Amino acid sequence: MILRRYRFYILKYCLFIFFLFFINTLSGQKNDSDHLSIFRKKVNQILVESDSLNRQRFFRVEPDTNFTWEKYAAFLKKISDTSKYIVLPLNEFRKTFDNKKIVIGLRHDIDNDLNLAYKFSDIEYKLGFRATYFVLHTAPYYLANSNNMEVHSDRIIPILKKMQDERHFEIGWHNDLVTLQVVYNINPVTFLHNELNWLRSNGINIVGTASHGSNYCKVYHYLNFYFFEECTFPARPNFDNNITVPVGGRNIKLIKGKLKDFGLQYEAYFLNNNKYFSDASITNGIRWNIGMLDLNQLHPGDRVNILLHPIHWHKGSVSANIESFSLPGQRACIIDTLNSTVSVEMPYGINKDSLIASYILSPGAYAKSGGKMQVSNITSHNYNFPLTFKVYAENRSVQKIWTINVYSEKRPSCDFLSFTIPGVTKSVVINASRKSILVEVNESANLKRLPVKFDLSQGVTAWIGPDKQFSNSGTVNFSGNVNYRVVSEDGVDSCIWTVTVRKAKF
Ligand SMILES: [Zn+2]
């Protein structure tokens, strides 16, 4: 099952399709004649919002990674005011009505990583929140053998029980049943009965199901909730047939069941909410994140369904480093992480009044200087004085003060800029740090009498013994190594260059 490997990646796309699809459904517009126009309007709104986000991201006005556990915790703290919000798992959400408050249902599709979902649920638990976690029966953790979709693993029971019994979260069924039938040729009715019996006999009380956006949905054009007879609409391109699925040149007739036949009471995409937000939606390359939810746009009486996938979230990094730094034309740069300093050497005499640095910070970190947000390759500074960068780690609670020192020293120059034996040079290697030059010449060259052409910096002179050397004047005996003394313009500094001339080998 090679395709299974890619399910995780394609999942994102499928869930986005779901989001677009249900943004209308979930706002209670079932079978409405304005169905499509409302759909478009909402999509347009999202596009406009994300355009402005795109711009923000480009200029990095508030650069960050939006999917840290810390950010989710910060969001939960914002909705912890019980005089304004009621936050519930979905089964309680659908039965709870309050016109004076904003009622929020928290849904999480566990998808491929149960351990990560459990860690994610820590955030809610510690802050006194509860949510619904939908367990996926085609995920590796659910199966005893990842190649056999029919045999579950008992290992998941203790984790699910802990979430349900100790944390009072709701566990739901993340439905990938049409995939089972179409791709694995497994009878979904028998399977669902067996699995729900197993889970319930282990004390896991499942009353809700949520359709999973498998990669196969895109390949074969179906939605998993087509399994349930109650979930038959709406029509949309590529997903317009909930009766048959064409596979390998033949139409497979979908096997269906009723929610109540399995003791199920709701499908999470068919709830009584008027607002819906999901981190499965990606617009213009940007995944919707919780920071995009403007709580001011929610009003008493609103019923809000929020779907977050723990697999998209991570613990914020605590690194607040400058990992690389460069100024245009710099000679050298040393980053001292221990002392949080950056030392940059610039060429002597260069104007440092307004330079734009290019740098990389720790992942997810951002920097401010003088209270202003810094942007690599955009923000300019006067580097005649030490500059302070305050770097905020991705988790935002760790900050580090960095000092950037830019200096330039007058370095005496005693270098050859070029060196050649006219007419016979095959190759030249000038090694400025070793002060050596290696010239390869034609077989025909007479090493004892070779003319030399070279370039030196302005005012610099070259000597062999007591004799001043001039480019393209006279000859030099290169039968052995020849030492040149190169003297800087001020006559104070000098260095010895060793020139080796040899015949090229063929
Ligand atoms: Zn899913």
Radius of gyration based on Cα positions: 35 Å
User: What small molecules does this complex bind?
Assistant: zinc ion
The DSSP helix count reads 9
What is the 3D form?
Answer: elongated
Main sheet properties: 8 strands, parallel
What gap, in angstroms, lies between the N and C termini?
Answer: 57 Å
Average residue pLDDT: 86
pLDDT under 50 segments (min length 5)? 1-5, 8-64
Structure in words:
The chain has 506 residues and is α/β, with parallel strands linked by helices. It folds into 3 domains: 2-312, no CATH class; 322-407, Sandwich (Immunoglobulin-like), CATH 2.60.40.2340; 416-503, Sandwich (Immunoglobulin-like), CATH 2.60.40.2340. The chain contains 9 helices and 32 strands. Strands 1, 2, 3, 4, 5, 8, 9 and 12 form an 8-stranded parallel sheet that branches. The chain has a 6-stranded mixed sheet with strand order 14-15-22-21-18-19, with no helix packed on it. The chain has a 6-stranded mixed sheet with strand order 24-25-32-31-28-29, with no helix packed on it. α1 packs across α2 (35-59). The protein is elongated. 34% of the residues are buried. The model is unreliable at 1-5 and 8-64 (pLDDT under 50). It binds zinc ion. Zinc ion (ZN) binds at residues 109, 111, 136, 174, 212-213. Residues 109, 111, 136, 174, 212-213 line the site of zinc ion.
Quick gist of this model?
The chain is of the alpha/beta class and 506 residues long.
